[in-house]
Write a structure and sequence with these properties.
By secondary structure, the protein is of the alpha+beta class. Helices cover 28% and strands 25% of the residues. The strands form four sheets. An eight-stranded mixed β-sheet has the order 1-2-6-3-7-16-8-15. Strands 12-13-9-14 form a four-stranded antiparallel β-sheet, covered by helices on one side. The protein has a three-stranded antiparallel β-sheet with strand order 4-5-17. It is elongated, with a radius of gyration of 23 Å. The protein starts with 10 loop residues before the first helix and ends with a helix.
């Protein structure tokens, strides 16, 4: 492994260097060490460490601060390392999610010498696994002042356009009870799986809301994602569970989303198993408007959930902006056009400098 990253090199070369250092969730230490050492040696930024998260910032006394965040970890490698460059497209694990965005951040940390805003760069660990392990949560607990700012830009893949806010997500279990019996005498029992039929029909007929906020259209969703039940091949089952995932627009709180699901599945035993709030787009904030102007085009709604919600919960507007097609994230075919990496770096340099 190289002793250092050349942060001032072009961000495409830097992306390839990051991709070629495996950093599957929980195994980010080598990459975090390299990022920390490179930032300390090549920039005047204040640098600190939290586990396998590396943080760096300016302290120039500017009237506003922009936080740029990106996770260092990837999903497991799937025979897609080392990186390769073909016809202007960089292939490899993490090129999309999200080492292209990390490379842009590192490049800016080394090359934006006189920013209009104070800057904080957050490179964190364990984003691709359960939320309790997410490095941002640890940073928020241990170093909360490092996450404060007037705008957060999460450099997740967004096809190089501003994706504003994000939708919330909730999972519930819809549970039915029955009574066991031998299938040869099925009338003597109550089939819990059959009792899910009405719940599935409600899902099939469900019409999801579409909500416009700050000119961005959020399209909600309600989908069955798992069905479990059954005892044996000759037993009427006495319990069944339907797991449902709800993606809700950021004009609804998790409490409102839960109330809505309980109305949809009225008459059923409903248990919330996972919930994360959404984030409003925040496009009316002055600093956000500056970014949108620098990026050009129209911002769009982020339909998935990202860590912008964590920043929004801290009371600051947050957007997604980074290179790569998010539909390629986590696939063996992960790849990013190099001109998208360059464009994202140029847009953010223009906005920040």
């Amino acid at each position: 492994m190289a002793d250092t990253l050349h942060l001032a090199a072009d961000p495409v070369t830097l992306t390839a260097a990051l991709v070629d250092i495996p950093s599957v969730s929980g195994d980010e230490a080598r990459l975090a060490d390299l990022v920390e050492r490179s930032l300390r040696e090549q920039t005047p930024l204040e640098v600190t460490r939290s586990g396998n998260a590396v943080l760096a910032r300016t302290n120039l006394g500017r009237p506003s601060r922009v936080v740029l965040a990106g996770h260092l970890d990837t999903v497991p490698v799937n025979d897609n390392l080392p990186s390769r460059l073909e016809d202007g497209v960089l292939h490899g694990c993490g090129t999309v999610d999200m080492k292209g965005g990390d490379a842009v951040m590192l490049h800016l940390a080394a090359t934006v010498a006189d920013p209009r805003h104070d800057l904080t760069f957050v490179f964190y660990d364990c984003e691709e696994v359960e939320a309790v392990r997410n490095g941002l949560g640890r940073v928020e607990r241990d170093l909360p002042e490092w996450l404060r700012g007037d705008l957060a830009i999460v450099c997740e893949p967004s096809n190089g356009v501003v994706e504003a806010g994000c939708q919330g997500t909730m999972r519930v279990e819809v549970r039915t009870k029955g009574a066991r019996a031998h299938t040869a005498r099925g009338w003597m029992g109550v089939n819990a799986i059959h009792a899910l039929g009405e719940a599935l029909r409600r899902l099939e007929a469900y019409e999801a809301r579409q909500v416009d906020i700050d000119g961005c259209r959020y399209r909600e969703g309600l989908q069955a994602v798992r069905v479990s039940g059954g005892v044996a091949g000759n037993v009427v089952p006495d319990e069944a569970v339907l797991t449902v995932n709800h993606r809700f627009a950021p004009d609804r709180s998790p409490e409102q989303a839960e109330l809505h699901l309980r109305e949809v599945f009225e008459g059923y035993d409903v248990t919330v198993t996972d919930s994360s709030p959404g984030a409003l787009p925040g496009l009316t904030a002055p600093t956000t408007r500056e970014l949108v102007a620098a990026a050009g085009g129209d911002p769009v709604a982020k339909l998935g959930w990202t860590d912008v919600a964590r920043f929004a919960a801290l009371g600051m507007p947050a957007v997604n902006f980074g290179p790569g097609d998010p539909t390629l994230a986590h696939t063996r075919q992960e790849n990013v056009p190099v001109d998208q990496i360059v464009r994202c770096a140029d847009v953010l340099r223009r906005f920040l400098g």
